[in-house]
Amino acid sequence: MSEVHVRRRRKRMSEMNVVPYIDVMLVLLIIFMVTAPLMNLGVEVELPTGAAEPMEDQGDPLLVTVTRSGEFYLDTGDAPQLIDGDTLRETVAAIAARNPQLQVTVSGDRDVPYQFIYSAMVELQRAGVASVGLTGDPEQE
């Protein structure tokens, strides 16, 4: 009789080594935890309070923030950018040309002189914005 060799096939491992992926995930988590508090999400101002009704929501408006020192910040959805009056007018005019129904709101610290708020509104009017809203906090009961 002839000898028959039976080969045993090795069973392939179907498991995946996930340890390197976990290491990368933990490093990314630490990076995000460290950098998240450092991101500037807006300009710090103390808004005035009032009992006004909120505006109808027609999308995200442009936000112009006026600081106590009279500086303008324009927030188009990204981080607010410090700009001067001429740049504010030109930038908003370019955006308003593409979107005639553009909503623009002006916010300012409650201690900002009215002249600075008025200057921002004049620049927005010169840019061709049809209506400008003012931002405030609701009154505390």
* Percentage of residues in helical conformation: 25-40%
Strand element count: 7
The CA-CA distance between the termini, in Å, is 101 Å
Strands across the major sheet, in which order?
Answer: 4-3-2-5-6
Q: Per DSSP, what share of the residues sits in E-state strands of 2 or more residues?
A: 15-25%
Under CATH at level 1, the class of the domain at 49-138 stands as: Alpha Beta
Rg over alpha carbons: 28 Å
Q: Treating each run of at least 4 consecutive H or I residues as one helix, how many helices?
A: 3
Q: The biggest beta sheet, please?
A: 5 strands, mixed
User: Can you give the mean pLDDT?
Assistant: 80
Shape: elongated
Architecture per CATH nomenclature, i.e. the level-2 architecture of the domain at 49-138: 2-Layer Sandwich
Structural class: alpha/beta
CATH fold-level assignment of the domain at 49-138 = Nucleotidyltransferase, domain 5
| Uncertain stretches of 5 or more adjacent residues | none
Q: What is the element string, with H for helices and E for strands?
A: HEEEEHEHEE
Subcellular location: Cell inner membrane; Cell membrane
Transmembrane segments: 21-39
Keywords: Cell cycle, Cell division, Cell inner membrane, Cell membrane, Membrane, Transmembrane, Transmembrane helix
Organism: Wenzhouxiangella limi
Can you characterise this structure?
- One of its GO terms (molecular function) is transmembrane transporter activity.
- Part of the Tol-Pal system, which plays a role in outer membrane invagination during cell division and is important for maintaining outer membrane integrity.
- It is a single-pass membrane protein.
- This is Tol-Pal system protein TolR.
- Keywords: Cell cycle, Cell division, Cell inner membrane, Cell membrane, Membrane, Transmembrane, Transmembrane helix.
- With 141 residues, this protein is α/β, with parallel strands linked by helices.
- It has a domain at 49-138: Nucleotidyltransferase, domain 5 (2-Layer Sandwich).
- It is 31% helix and 17% strand.
- It contains 3 helices and 7 strands.
- The chain has helices at 19-35, 85-98, 114-126; strands spanning 49-50, 62-66, 72-75, 81-83, 104-108, 132-134, 137-138.
- It has a 5-stranded mixed beta sheet. The protein has a two-stranded parallel sheet with strand order 1-7.
- Strand 3 and strand 4 form a beta hairpin.
- Helix 2 (85-98) crosses helix 3 (114-126).
- It is elongated.
- The mean pLDDT is 80.
